[in-house]
Each structure stands twice: as structure tokens, then as C-alpha cells.
Backbone:
């Protein structure tokens, strides 16, 4: 009888303690969502409008899906990785190191390819971007996947089997100039990435990326372009 009484007290105490447990990650997510509402999502993460946001970018070629070598047109699946700091998304609770939020809840840099046709048809919305990973100090990491058709350069006088195809994709920001949104630390000349899917027809030979700053003739604004060039050959070409 005594034992039962004690048990009952313990059960009650147990429930009381449980009621006080905070779901810390949830608390942090609520706090971040509360701090970053629509104006935060629509504006750059800088205090002074004259400052620029610096974004690190990396492009990965995931797959050469198919291609028409006579036209030099290929369908590629590319992943873009971006990192930047948005201190509006930071939090003080050191028990939570990282949270993950769908990209619609945060500001994201509007960097896009401008010289390819983007085909989304066969991929669901969820596939197109990963949720952003946010660290306690507001550092954000976000990846975007795209499926695109790109026109490549090749030597029309040579047969397909001995041709080298050079496919260039130019990324840029359609909204911000380089004094407002700049790109740095583009990882250069990655050959094959870990998640690269081998293709039995096409061999990736080289991958190069360059960040180009240029002044536009009309307005003297500084712009940033990211030139990503892949080279590939037909798989039967062993030179
Ligand atoms: C933010 O924190 C991460 C580790 O959680 C660290 O790698 C990164 O350098 C920090 N960034 C800044 C700007 O302090
Ligand atoms: C992009 O880089 C490739 C390879 O270096 C080069 O051939 C091409 O002219 C560049 N395009 C632009 C627009 O910068």
C-alpha cells in the first residue's frame, strides 16, 4: 500500500517535470520565425543599405542526363550550394546548434543561370531546393537543384565520337549589382563530385568556374557573373 502511494507521487512528479520540458529546437524555430517575417524575407541581411551581402557559391555537376551531339545541346542536372550570413536568423540558446527552415521563410540570393532553358517538368517542387540549414550565429547554407538544357560549343567539322563539348552556364543576379550582392570563393575546377552520376555515353573531362566582375557600359554599375564551363567527350573517345 505504502509502495503504491509512493509510486503515485513519483508518477505525478514525473508528469509535472515533463510539463516543464521545453522542446528547445522548436522554441528556437519559433523565435527565428517571429524575428524574420515578410520584410526580413524580402530584404538583404545587412544593416547599412550601402553594404554588400557576400555569398559563397559552389556548382556541382550531378548528372549529364542526355544530349543531342549534332546540335550540341545537353540536359544537365546541376546543384548550386550557397552560404552567407544572416544575423537576423541567429539565436542565443547554445543548446541548439542548427535549425532547418524551408527557403520561403528566409532571404535567399537571387542568383540564376541566364543562358539556358530550365526544365522543371519531371521534378517535384520539393526536389528543386533543399531546406536551408541555419547555424546559431546566422550562417546559412542552402542548395538548389536545377535541370537545364544548355547549348555547347564543339567543332562542327569533327565527328561526334572525337569531339570535345564545352558547355558554359552564366549565373548572375538579376536584381542586385556586385556592390549589393557579391559572390566569392567559388570552388574552382572540381572534376567529379561525390554525387556525380556516371553516364555511359558522356565523360566529364573538366569543370571550371570563374567569377567575373565587370562594369556595365550604360550605368557604370559593377556586376558579377559566374562562368561555369564543363567539358565532356563521348565515352568512346579515349585520348
Ligand atoms: C558560424 O558558426 C560556424 C560553426 O557553427 C562556424 O563554422 C562559422 O565560421 C561561424 N561564422 C561566423 C561568421 O562567425
Ligand atoms: C566562359 O568561360 C569559357 C571557358 O573559360 C570561355 O570560353 C567563355 O568565353 C566564357 N564566357 C563568358 C561569357 O565569359
Residues:
Amino acid at each position: 500500500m505504502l509502495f503504491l502511494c509512493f509510486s503515485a507521487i513519483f508518477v505525478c512528479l514525473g508528469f509535472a517535470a515533463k510539463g516543464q520540458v521545453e522542446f528547445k529546437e522548436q522554441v528556437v524555430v519559433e523565435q527565428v520565425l517571429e524575428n524574420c517575417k515578410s520584410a526580413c524575407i524580402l530584404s538583404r541581411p545587412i544593416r547599412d543599405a550601402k553594404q554588400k551581402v557576400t555569398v559563397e557559391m559552389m556548382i556541382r555537376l550531378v548528372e549529364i542526363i542526355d544530349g543531342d551531339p549534332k546540335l550540341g545541346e545537353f540536359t544537365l542536372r546541376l546543384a548550386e550550394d550557397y552560404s552567407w550570413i544572416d544575423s537576423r536568423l541567429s539565436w542565443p540558446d547554445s543548446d541548439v546548434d542548427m535549425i532547418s527552415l524551408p527557403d520561403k521563410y528566409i532571404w535567399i540570393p537571387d542568383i540564376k543561370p541566364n543562358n539556358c532553358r530550365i526544365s522543371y517538368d519531371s521534378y517535384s517542387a520539393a526536389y528543386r531546393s533543399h531546406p536551408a540549414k541555419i547555424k546559431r550565429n546566422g550562417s546559412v547554407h542552402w542548395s538548389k537543384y536545377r535541370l537545364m538544357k544548355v547549348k555547347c560549343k564543339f567543332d562542327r567539322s569533327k565527328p561526334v565520337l572525337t569531339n570535345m563539348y564545352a558547355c558554359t552556364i552564366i549565373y548572375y543576379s538579376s536584381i542586385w549589382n556586385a556592390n549589393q550582392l557579391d559572390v566569392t570563393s567559388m570552388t574552382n575546377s572540381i572534376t567529379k563530385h561525390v554525387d556525380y552520376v556516371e553516364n555511359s555515353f558522356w565523360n566529364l573531362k573538366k569543370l571550371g568556374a570563374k567569377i567575373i566582375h565587370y562594369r556595365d557600359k550604360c550605368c557604370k554599375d559593377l556586376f558579377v557573373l559566374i562562368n561555369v564551363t564543363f567539358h565532356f567527350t563521348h565515352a568512346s573517345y579515349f585520348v
